[in-house]
Design a protein that fits this description.
515 residues, alpha+beta, six-stranded mixed sheet, binds FE2/S2 (inorganic) cluster
C-alpha cells in the first residue's frame, strides 16, 4: 500500500492495483490543500492502475482535473451503490467508461481472486448525499479503507474475517466552531470538545474492528491562504479541530494504541497476514517536528495557484438576488420537511473583499421566498464575500456545502442549536437532490404518509428517489408514472415496471360512502 496523501492510497496486489481518492488540486475555493504536499509524487505511474475507487463526491476525494489528467481511462471504476447516478455521470464526463457497479455490503470477486466490498451510506447527512468505505481481500490479507465514512458500526466488515489494515479518519473536516461569531474562549472550549469527540469516535471504530494495524488518513487538510492560515494546527491551540497524524499517534498511545502507522505521500507499507513493513520517503519525526517550516514552503509553492483561483471568482455582472431567487425559490416551494426543519429565515450578509456588507439577502423558509433583508430578527445568519456567491451562481453550483461552507470562507451566527436542516437544504439545490432528501426524512417518520390519487391509495414518496407523488405522480388506470424520472408502477400488484425491486405500497382507495 502506497500513501498518496489525505484519503488517497494505492493498493497493489498480484491480482491488480486499486487507486483510491486521488486528490492533489486545492478544493473548496482554494481553501483546502492535501497535507503533506503530494503534488511531487509520480502521478503518471500511480494513475496507471487497474481499478479506481472514488469514495464520494466531496472535492477532497473527487479531484476532477487530476482524475482527467493522470488516471488511466482503462481503469475500471469500482462504483458504490448510491441512490443517484451523479458520481458515475461525473466520472463518465471525465472519460471513464468501465464501471463495476457494486451492491452495498456485498462481497464481489474480481479477476485473479481479488475480493472487494463497498459499503455505501446514503443519508442526506453522509457526504454530499453518499459516502462509502472499501474493503479489499487478497491472498488472505484484508484491508478496510473506511475513509471518512461514519457507519453506525463496523460489524459487516468484522464478520468477513480479521482485518489486517484499517484506514480511517481521525481529524476534523468541517467549519465548526471556527467560523462562528463567538468569543475566542467559547470557540476554544467548543473546539476542544469537538477534537475530543473526534478522537473518541476514532477509538470506538478501532476497537470495533480490532485490526492488526491502524492508519490515520483522510485529514487533516492544510490551509495555505493567508486568510485561513490560522486554521492549521501549528499554534498549540487545544481547540483546533485539525490535529495531524503525529498527534493521532500520541493520543492513540495514551489509550494504549501501539499499532498505528503513518503514511506520508510516497510511504510504502508491505502488508502480510503477519506483518507490516513501512518505508518512508523522508524522516517522519523530522517532518512533523518542523511542520510549520514545511507548511510555509508549501504555501510559497502554491501562492500563484491561490491567486489564480481568487481571480476567477468575481462576476460583478451577476444579479445575486435574482440569481438566488431563480435557484432557490422553486425548491422552497417544494420543500416540506427541510423547510419545516429550518423553521425560520436565513440571512446572507454579502461583503466586499474588504469586508463591508454590500447586500443582505434573506432566504425566507416559512414565507417561501428569497428577498432583500428587512429589519428583522433571523435565527441563522451567514456572512461571506459577495464574489463567492457570484461564483456559485456562475458555475450553477447545486451544493453549497461542498463548495462554500467547507471552504470556511464565511462566518456564521445562530440563535439556538445547530440545525442539520439548514445545511441539508443548501447541499440540495437541485430538484433531484431536494426530492431525495425530503423523501428520506419523510420515510423516517413513523407515520409515513399515503396519498389518494386516481382511485388508488399509495405511498406519498416515489420508491425510486423519493419524489413527492402528489406533485410528480400521474395515474392512468392501474399505472402510476412518476414524472421526475419517468418510472412506472403497477398499482394493483405494487410492482415497479421500470426496474427490479422498488415495489410501491398501494391499494384500491376505499369507496366514498354514498351521500
Ligand atoms: S423519483 Fe425517479 S421516477 Fe420517481
Amino acid at each position: 500500500m502506497t500513501g498518496t496523501g489525505h484519503a488517497s492510497m494505492r493498493i497493489d496486489t498480484e491480482a491488480g492495483s486499486i487507486l483510491c481518492d486521488p486528490w492533489v488540486n486545492p478544493a473548496y475555493f482554494a481553501s483546502w490543500f492535501p497535507f503533506p504536499d503530494n503534488s511531487q509524487l509520480d502521478w503518471e505511474t500511480l494513475g496507471d492502475c487497474d481499478y479506481l475507487y472514488v469514495s464520494h463526491l466531496h472535492r477532497d476525494h473527487f479531484d476532477a482535473a487530476h482524475l482527467k489528467r493522470y488516471v488511466s481511462k482503462r481503469a475500471t471504476v469500482l462504483l458504490p451503490e448510491y441512490p443517484t447516478s451523479q458520481l458515475e455521470d461525473e466520472l463518465r464526463d471525465l472519460g471513464f467508461t468501465k464501471f463495476y457497479k457494486t451492491v452495498s455490503d456485498e462481497v464481489h470477486e474480481l479477476d485473479g481472486g481479488l475480493k472487494i466490498m463497498i459499503q455505501a451510506l446514503t443519508s442526506p447527512t453522509d457526504g454530499p448525499i453518499g459516502d462509502s468505505s472499501l474493503w479489499v481481500e487478497h491472498d488472505g490479507v484484508r484491508v478496510l479503507n473506511q475513509n471518512d465514512a461514519r457507519p453506525t458500526d463496523l460489524q459487516r466488515f468484522a464478520e468477513l474475517g480479521h482485518v489486517h489494515a484499517h484506514m480511517l479518519q481521525f481529524s476534523g473536516a468541517i467549519w465548526y466552531p471556527m467560523v462562528y461569531e463567538l468569543p475566542q474562549s467559547a470557540k476554544t472550549a467548543f473546539g476542544k470538545q469537538k477534537r475530543d469527540r473526534q478522537f473518541d469516535r476514532t477509538w470506538r471504530y478501532i476497537d470495533d474492528l480490532n485490526a492488526s494495524w491502524v492508519f490515520p488518513i483522510a485529514g487533516p487538510p492544510c490551509f495555505l491562504d493567508d486568510e485561513l492560515w490560522q486554521f492549521n494546527d501549528i499554534f498549540g491551540d487545544e481547540g483546533n479541530i485539525f490535529p495531524d497524524q503525529s498527534v493521532f499517534l500520541s493520543e492513540y498511545a495514551k489509550v494504549g494504541g501501539t499499532n498505528g502507522i503513518v503514511l506520508l505521500p510516497g510511504s510504502v507499507t508491505e502488508l502480510t497476514t503477519e506483518s507490516a513493513k513501512t518505508e518512508h520517503p523522508t524522516d517522519v519525526d523530522e517532518y512533523f517536528a518542523n511542520k510549520e517550516t514545511h507548511l510555509k514552503a508549501y504555501k510559497e509553492r502554491q501562492e500563484a495557484t491561490i491567486a489564480r483561483e481568487k481571480a476567477s471568482w468575481s462576476h460583478p455582472e451577476i444579479d445575486v438576488l435574482a440569481g438566488m431567487k431563480a435557484r432557490i425559490e422553486p425548491l422552497l416551494d417544494e420543500s416540506v420537511r427541510l423547510a419545516q426543519g429550518v423553521g425560520g429565515p436565513v440571512r446572507f450578509d454579502l461583503t466586499s473583499p474588504e469586508g463591508d456588507v454590500v447586500e443582505s439577502i434573506v432566504v425566507d423558509f416559512p414565507g417561501k421566498e428569497v428577498r432583500v433583508a428587512a429589519d428583522e430578527k433571523v435565527r441563522y445568519r451567514f456572512r461571506t464575500e459577495r464574489r463567492l456567491i457570484e461564483h456559485l451562481l456562475h458555475i450553477d453550483e447545486g451544493d453549497w456545502v461542498n463548495s462554500l461552507f467547507l471552504s470556511c470562507r464565511f462566518s456564521a451566527a445562530r440563535i439556538g442549536q445547530y440545525n442539520e436542516f439548514v445545511y441539508a437544504f443548501f447541499k440540495c439545490l437541485s430538484e433531484e437532490r431536494l426530492q431525495y432528501a425530503e423523501g428520506w426524512y419523510e420515510s423516517r417518520r413513523p407515520d409515513a404518509e399515503d396519498i389518494v390519487l386516481g382511485g388508488w391509495k399509495f405511498q406519498r414518496r416515489c420508491p425510486h428517489l423519493n419524489a413527492d407523488l402528489t406533485r410528480f405522480g400521474i395515474v392512468d388506470g392501474n399505472t402510476l408514472t412518476c414524472q421526475l424520472h419517468g418510472w412506472r408502477f403497477d398499482l394493483a400488484s405494487g410492482r415497479c415496471l421500470t426496474s427490479v425491486g422498488h415495489e410501491i405500497r398501494s391499494e384500491k382507495a376505499p369507496e366514498r360512502p354514498a351521500e
